[in-house]
Design goal:
11 strands, alpha/beta, four-stranded mixed β-sheet, 18 helices, globular, 383 residues
């Protein structure tokens, strides 16, 4: 039977790769959403012919409706339109590849309709991990991670029982500036930062990979997804990006998942689980890889990773604070209003200033989003 999926954030990097998988695997795409890129949305809509297409930006929604006037595709508008599409879709699996805090409400909405959630929006768990996981248990929603590291851990956990897990080993490429000293880091440019050594990703996540903020977010994501404390998640720099993560068991056995670095494999696994189907990505050639190397992350030169660990220890709304401050700082860097090292300085200052409000934040969507807005406003004053 043909599988039916929905892709939220279809015009982004992960969204486009999810659609590549749909095309190669023959999945039916019933519903799609995007942000502002009406031209690409039109191209995707005409290729996949979903019943619904939602645009977060209302002006872009009007543009897309005009472009698709000769089709039967219904165009929805704004956040409410995205949520309406989730309610209306016939998809068994919803791929949430929306970037940032905007993906939180869609994550929660998917849980209300008995659909599997293929989660690429890590911010849902960074901002509101406890709330999301509690709601998943209440609704019986299946969450399959699409991040390569968390997909790998999910697969490795099949080798044992939860009580037998000692720690999770979360691999990191180290980004383009692995081994740089402070002086050299102070001179890196935007172009340098966007040149990731192994992965092809959107600009924001590429910058986060370079600062190791993305890895910090992934520590928080793993902690919530797999029910372990952040202290039991160890980050290992693995430049080749062949081992995507591993699990160490109490008998000191380490089970790892290896494959070529391609997000499409993670999307396919999330949709086809518990089955494995013929792969849409290239097979792994160990002879070509040659060697695998490992190193500890440099917490001194990349302070956002330990800051994320601190957010996990403090709990409350500190993940929301960290994410909001980072989104503002990275946007400033991408606009060349902030230096690379300025990102960590600004995020750290915002984190410390908002610590009291974050720790005491009520664990509700409205409270967390209000904290997000307050943090963004404050962080803007630091740029």
């Amino acid at each position: 039977m043909t599988k039916t999926i929905a892709v939220l954030g279809a015009t982004g990097s992960v969204g486009r790769q999810a659609l590549d998988v749909a095309l190669s695997r023959g999945y039916r795409v019933d519903y799609m959403s995007a942000g502002k890129n009406a031209a690409l949305a039109e191209e995707q809509a005409r290729r996949f012919l979903p019943r619904f297409f939602a645009m977060a930006d209302e002006r872009a929604a009007g543009d897309l409706a005009t472009r698709l006037a000769d089709t039967e595709i219904r165009v929805l508008s704004g956040e409410e339109g995205i949520l309406e599409g989730i309610a209306l879709t016939e998809a068994q699996t919803v791929v949430n590849a929306i970037l940032g805090e905007a993906g939180l409400r869609p994550t929660l909405a998917v849980m209300e309709y008995g659909r599997r959630l293929a989660l690429a929006n890590k911010e849902s768990l960074v901002i509101a991990g406890e709330l999301v996981m509690t709601r998943a248990k209440e609704t019986g929603c299946e969450i399959l991670p699409v991040d390569s590291e968390h997909s790998a851990i999910f697969q490795c956990l099949a080798a044992g029982q939860k009580k037998e897990v000692k720690r999770l080993l979360l691999t990191a490429s180290g980004g383009p500036f692995f081994g740089y000293d402070r002086e050299r880091l102070s001179r890196v440019t935007l172009a340098d930062t966007l040149a990731h050594p192994t992965w092809k990703m959107g600009k924001k996540i590429t910058v986060d990979s370079a600062t190791l903020m993305n890895k910090g977010f992934e520590v928080l994501e793993a902690s919530h997804l797999f029910g372990v404390s952040p202290e039991r998640v160890e980050v290992v720099v693995h430049r080749e990006s062949i081992i995507h993560s591993a699990v160490e068991y109490i008998d000191n056995t380490v089970i790892a998942e290896m494959s070529v670095p391609d997000m499409r494999a993670c999307v396919q696994y999330a949709v086809d689980y518990p089955d494995r189907e013929a792969g849409t990505v290239a097979p792994l050639d160990l002879f070509s890889v040659g060697r695998l190397t490992f190193a500890r992350p440099d917490a001194e030169r990349f302070p956002l990773l330990p800051l994320a660990m601190e957010a996990g220890r403090l709990g409350g709304g500190m993940g929301a604070v960290l994410n909001a401050a980072d989104e503002v700082a990275v946007a400033a860097f991408l606009s060349e209003k902030l230096t690379f090292t300025g990102i960590s300085s600004v995020v750290t200052k915002a984190f410390e200033t908002m610590r009291g409000a974050g720790v005491s934040c009520e664990k509700s969507v409205d409270a967390l989003i209000a904290l997000d807005r307050e943090t963004r406003a404050y962080t803007e004053t630091l740029i």
